[in-house]
Amino acid sequence: MTSLQTKREREKQIVAGMIRLYCRKKHHTRGALCPDCAALADYAAQRSDHCPFMETKTFCSNCKVHCYRPEMREKIREVMRFAGPWMLLYHPMMAIRHLMETKREQGREDLS
């Protein structure tokens, strides 16, 4: 697997983990996602698979071009706001890596 493929898969894992956590806490699901969250997870994975900027960005939140439809963008923002703090408890290594990569990306943008 190339580093680009690895990066795509890692981004998809983080987003999927956040959506699962959100769905479990907000919609009280166990195991399978509710239909709305499943649709959001599928949509987010599709966006990652087709992202032309994957080589130069870390996460969608750092991208200059937002390819999500407005209603899906709002849904993913809601998920991120809710699940972000919980990720430290449920998936600490994933959350710390995400924070470090986000800070590193922001540092690169400040230098340019």
Plain-language structure description:
The protein has helices spanning 3-26, 35-49, 70-90, 92-111. 71% of the residues lie in helices and 0% in strands. With 112 residues, the chain is mainly alpha-helical. 21% of the residues are buried. It is built from 4 helices and no strands. The protein has one domain. It is globular, with a radius of gyration of 14 Å. Helix 1 (3-26) packs antiparallel against helix 2, helix 1 crosses helix 3 and helix 3 (70-90) crosses helix 4 (92-111). The N and C termini lie far apart (30 Å).
Secondary structure blueprint with pairings:
Blueprint (H helix, E strand, L loop, with lengths): L2 H24 L8 H15 L20 H21 L1 H20 L1
Radius of gyration: 14 Å
Q: Note the overall shape.
A: globular
SSE pattern: HHHH
Largest sheet: none
Number of domains: 1
Helix tally equals 4
Helix content: over 70%
Number of strands: 0
- Given as residue ranges, the uncertain stretches (5+ residues, pLDDT < 50) are none
Share in β-strands: under 5%
Question: For the residues shown, what is the average pLDDT?
Answer: 86
Q: Helix- and strand-based class?
A: mainly alpha
Summary, kept brief:
The chain has helices spanning 3-26, 35-49, 70-90, 92-111. The chain is 71% helix and 0% strand. The longest helix has 24 residues, at 3-26.
